[in-house]
Amino acid sequence: MPADLRHAILFEPVRIGPVTAKNRFFQTPHCNGMGSSRPEALVRMRAVKAEGGWGVICTEETSIAPEADIAPAVGLQLWDESDLALAGRLADAIHRGGALAGIELMHYGPVAANRATRRVALGPSGLPFPRRLDPAQPRAMDLADIREVRADYVRAARLARQAGFDLVYAAAVHDATLPMHFLSRRYNRRSDEYGGSLENRVRLLREIVEDIKAAIGDRVAIAVRLAVDELLGPAGLTSVGEGREIVAMLAELPDLWDVNLSNWSNDSASSRFAAEGHQEPYVAFVKKLTSKPVVGVGLFTSPDTMADQIRRGVLDLVGMTRPSIADPFLPRKVAEGRVDDIRECIGCNICVASHNSSVPLRCTQNPTAGEEWRRDWHPEVMPFDAPRERVLVVGAGPAGLECALTLARRGFGVVLAEAKRDLGGRVTTESRLPGLTTWARVRDWRLGQMAKHERVEIFRESRMTAADATALDVSRVIVAAGSRWRADGLGRANLDPIPIAPGVRVITPDDVMAGDALEGPVLVFDDDHYYMGGVIAEKLVRDGLAVTLATPNAEVAAWTAYTLEQPWIARHLAKLGVALRTRCNLSRIEPGRAFLSDGSEVAARTVVLVTAREPIDALYRELAATDASRIHRIGDCDAPSTIAAAVYAGHALGRTLGAPPRPSRREA
Ligand code: ADP
Ligand code: SF4
Where are the alpha helices (DSSP H) in 413-465? Predict the structure, then answer.
């Protein structure tokens, strides 16, 4: 029974076909950049989650055959018996924590370019997948191909059972799986019994589930993961149209329904564009059409919201991917009534970006994510091994806060000095920008934890000089003073300063965040390509100013393709009335106007340069000049990067300071 009885409903067991989950906390499948390529890291990551108390823990997408090869993306493979050893280790690791082990079998159909295996891709029709530009088309599957794919599913399902999995998925999600492409009117142009009417288009998914059930259904539960709405209106599956009809047709066939939105950027929408529980309007109908348990996701981090979803009959199991990465121990903390200790996901999608870069998982809130094996970091366990030292951390941004907390957990005495009254550094200022409210959780969680450690003394409004730091009775100084945006335009596109005529108002995001009054029209020049340019443009347009955003790239906010936000940002800015100019460098700025590299000019009384940042490292340099061995720099003050990188740097130094050096392990 959990400490808080309002959450008791979350700890009820749930029967899923032939197996039973011990509670309603369900870690939905998620990729992680480890997969079959980095097996040790993968097994340890899932093992840590299992310790955290989940009722069900699923693998990532698991390719069932060489025709389902999405290299260079990294996933799990279950093609033949040579994959059994890793699959078995995974299932064992999950079971050791008392969770059911689920595996998401995947055939990517025309989305697989089969770059590594060089097999011919397969699809319902011969059309290439619109978002993959490889100069290769899939073969339109004939009936023999269909039989073969069904056999691939059965073989993989049998292997999954042999490995010890309790739950096997047939997935039709993310606009990226063969069964989904058969369901889709857009992609399925067949005229045989697998095309045309919805009944025909559902046939392959139905057969796959029936085949798997017949092969392993006595002992293993079968889940259908279905994207019930693609947010494309009548052109796609919708929760009032074909998405609903498919659920109605297959209602009692699977043992579990896992329902969500498609494509992936809608399913894993960032918190900038989606709130907790955002999928409810689309998936709530499912439970009305089936007696089988239903799991769904939606950035759930609050146990109150989770319990409410169950009580209102929206879901039976609460699906969490990102919240399980940010806090693998979320269920256990709810059970123990330690809700304040939950490291709440901020919805930034840096985790997604790691998968999209084919590198091991990383997380803004949880610096141990992806490092459980490589660096032997456990999210909840910290060696209490500090020498009896007192250290000074300068700057209470994400790097300084995380470092101070980690050092205190190890037993160091910590003096944390912050120049401003507000703590949190960039997460405090940036969380006041449109759509970024949840980012303040990076600060709030750390302050909440620090409040439990008497070993951190926090001094606000204490701008430290080298003399102040030297005068303090501390053994080391860690400078986490952050960075500032450049005002000269230097960046990726301009290695020399942008010519700026005298008397022109040129500012940076720091000035906007400081609340400087601006005159429109405004040009935001974005040579940073992440979120800042777009967020500043949004703020200014909401302030009533006319705004143009120009970028040298072909797309606005191009890097956010990794976080799945790029299409959202482009649509959002256009809808807000921001004039978007792509493939344009900024050539020079004169009073009232700015000149772009395509020869055009833009009326601008204010220009905001979002190009690059420079470290605030003068204090570090001055201190290091006398005794470099006792002085450290971390985060943006070392090299400006993401908030995730600042947290990671703070954690890494906190873990290693004064500890015997240990090599970082390596798989690939
Ligand atoms: P990071 O992302 O690396 O943590 P931030 O810019 O978010 O960096 O935070 C740096 C923090 O350091 C800011 O809150 C800033 O006010 C503070 N700071 C900078 N210089 C000093 C200083 N000399 N003394 C105390 N605090 C400082
Ligand atoms: Fe959540 Fe961001 Fe961590 Fe992903 S990286 S789990 S979105 S906090």
Answer: 426-430, 441-450
Structure tokens at 246: 């498919």
| Alpha carbon separation from 548 to 356, 430, 494, 604 (Å, rounded) | 30, 21, 19, 9
With contact defined as beta carbons under 8 Å apart, do 364 and 347 qualify?
no
Lining ligand 2 with CB less than 6 A are 322, 325-326, 345-351, 363-365
β-strand pairing of 76-77 with 25-27: unpaired
Q: Is the CB of 638 under 6 A from ligand 1?
A: no
Q: Rounded to whole angstroms, what are the CA distances from 197 to 92, 177, 191, 585?
A: 43, 19, 9, 50
Task: Identify which of 278, 348, 288 has the alpha carbon closest to the alpha carbon of residue 314.
Answer: 288
Q: 320: closest CA among 372, 369, 268, 271?
A: 268
**Per-residue pLDDT, 663:** 80
474 contact partners, CB below 8 Å, separation of at least 6: 389, 390, 391, 392, 415
User: In a mutational test of the pocket of ligand 2, which residue from 300, 344, 351 has the highest number of ligand atoms less than 8 Å from its CB?
Assistant: 351
Placement of tokens 């074909």 in the chain: 242
Q: What is the mean pLDDT of the chain?
A: 97
Cα(47) to centroid(ligand 2), Å: 19
What pLDDT, on the 0 to 100 scale, is given for residue 388?
A: 86
What is the best residue among 265, 364, 427, 431 to mutate for testing ligand 2's pocket, by most ligand atoms within 8 Å of CB? 364
Helices 143-163 and 198-216 cross at an angle (nearest 10°) of 40
Has residue 631 got a pLDDT over 80? yes
Number of the ligand 2 atom closest to the C-alpha atom of 325:
6
Q: Among 31, 272, 321, 346, name the best residue to mutate to test ligand 2's pocket (greatest count of ligand atoms within 8 A of Cβ).
A: 346
Q: What is the pTM of this model?
A: 0.97
Whole-number Å distance between alpha carbons of 396 and 457: 12
Angstrom distance (rounded) from CA 432 to CA 229: 32
Long-range CB pairs of 231-235, under 8 A, 24+ apart, other chains included: 231/261, 231/262, 231/266, 235/185, 235/186
Taking CA atoms only, the protein residue closest to ligand 2 atom 2 is 348
Cα-to-centroid distance, 447 and ligand 1 (Å): 15
* Ligand 2 centroid distance, CA of 247 (Å): 31
Q: Is the CB of 637 under 6 A from ligand 1?
A: yes
Q: Which residues pair with 130 in a beta bridge?
A: none
Predicted local distance difference test score (pLDDT) of residue 664:
81
Q: Which of 636, 647, 651 to mutate to test the pocket of ligand 1 (most atoms within 8 A of CB)?
A: 636
Q: What is the pLDDT confidence band of residue 379, given thresholds at 50, 70 and 90? A: very high
Tell me the C-alpha to C-alpha distance, in Å, between residue 1 and each of 6, 24, 367: 11, 13, 30
User: What are the pLDDT digits (tens) for 389-404?
Assistant: 999 999 999 999 999 9
CA dist., res. 444 & res. 441, Å (int): 5
Which ligand has the nearest atom to the CA of 368? Answer: 2
Is 404 within 8 Å of 393 (Cβ atoms)?
yes
Tell me, in angstroms, the distance from the centre of ligand 2 to residue 437's CA: 14
Helix (H, G, I), strand (E, B) or coil at 423: coil
Nearest ligand for residue 484 CA: 1
Strands 476-479 and 413-417: unpaired
- Residue-wise pLDDT for 535-555, tens only, equals 999 999 999 999 999 999 999
Question: Is residue 480 in contact with ligand 1, taking CB distance under 6 Å?
Answer: yes
